[in-house]
Amino acid sequence: MTEYVVLFPADDEAQWEAASEAEHQATFDTDAEFVQLLKASGGAVVGGAGLTHSSRARTIRRGSAPTDTVVTEGPFAETVEQLSGFYIVTCDDHDALTEAARVLTRAHPVVEIRPVDEF
After folding, report:
1. Residue 74 is part of a domain; what is its CATH number?
2. 85: closest CA among 19, 12, 1, 21?
3. For position 71, what pLDDT does the model report?
4. Spatial distance between the Cα atoms of 111 and 10, rounded to a whole number of angstroms
5. How many domains does the chain divide into?
6. pTM (2 decimals)?
7. Residue 89 in contact with residue 108, Cβ under 8 Å?
8. Is there a contact between 86 and 12 (Cβ–Cβ < 8 Å)?
9. Residue 59 has what pLDDT?
10. How far apart are CA 39 and CA 28, in angstroms?
11. H or E segment at 29?
């Protein structure tokens, strides 16, 4: 089976933190519906998680030489969108995965599906 990463690159962190428990549950229910649709098409969730607020991130960038690094707290300042979560899934049918992932847009404004390159 082919492995994919399903990414949520545009969720609004402030909106999530301000949301009610019922609004959080609606997102969890939508995610559960995606998992069921994926299973019905013969796919499976291998793993995944929601990510903490981007302000808690550390960014490591290569300096002028490959052995030089710079560590900063928080995301890139230029970054408008932040990755808020992901699933790692397996599925033989990319179109079926895409169809199942459509429901996720009810809770996540953008859903990106990327095949995992096997080395």
Report:
1. 3.30.70.1060
2. 12
3. 84
4. 8
5. 1
6. 0.85
7. no
8. no
9. 79
10. 17
11. helix 21-40
pLDDT in tens, 47-92: 999 888 787 888 788 888 878 998 888 766 555 567 889 999 999 9
> Nearest 5°: CA angle at 94, between 51 and 26?
40
Where in the sequence is the domain holding 106, given as residue range(s)?
A: 2-115
Burial class (CB in 10 A: 0-12, 13-18, 19+), 91: buried
Measured distance CA(83)–CA(8) in Å, rounded? 6
CA distance 6 to 46: 11
Query: How far apart, in whole angstroms, are the C-alpha atoms of residue 3 and residue 91?
Result: 7
Percentage, residues of the chain above pLDDT 90:
61
- Quote the radius of gyration of the chain (alpha carbons, Å): 16
Distance of alpha carbon 41 from alpha carbon 76, whole angstroms: 38
Among the listed residues 103, 85, 95, the one whose alpha carbon sits nearest the alpha carbon of residue 42: 95
Q: Which amino acid is at 108?
A: H
